[in-house]
Amino acid sequence: MKRVLPHPVLSVTLALLWLLLANRWTLGSLLMALILATLIPLLSAQWWPDRPQVRRPLALVGYILLVVRDVIVASFQVARIILFLPADRIRSAWITVPLDLTQPEAISLLAGTITMTPGTLTADLSSDGRALLVHALHAPDPKAIRDEIKTRYEARLKRIFA
Known about the structure:
By secondary structure, the protein is mainly alpha-helical. It has 2 domains: 8-47, no CATH class; 57-161, Alpha-Beta Plaits (2-Layer Sandwich), CATH 3.30.70. Helices cover 58% and strands 11% of the residues. It has helices spanning 8-22, 27-44, 57-84, 104-116, 142-161; strands at residues 93-98, 120-125, 131-136. Strands 1-3-2 form a 3-stranded antiparallel sheet. A hairpin with a 5-residue loop joins strand 2 and strand 3. Helix 3 packs antiparallel against helix 5 (142-161). The two termini are 25 Å apart.
């Protein structure tokens, strides 16, 4: 089975994305989804020598739900900051977040999570891969934001990918 579908999660994701983009559940679009879901992972398998091992898939589902919730809450917080906080009271900050994560996939997921959350943006990864540079729209206490990123997101990712 691994020969035909070397990356089953990628295959399912590609098929679903194609069906969503096609916006039709016809035989032709289903057939195209299956072709893409099979060929793309097969053709790209050589560039995936060390696939990430998700040790706790249910924890990953919980992480996704947490991120969705945080994105919604942060959207309202950013709107409140922009609409009601005087410009001279907004305290933007650059924050260095040291990383305990070592897997590139986990680091990418953390960086993407930070960027998806309104009000924060991952700007850079250090050359040694041990720290992220994050910009926060409003950070009256940058250390608290750094600590929240580490405890809320990074600790969960460590458990998921460890």
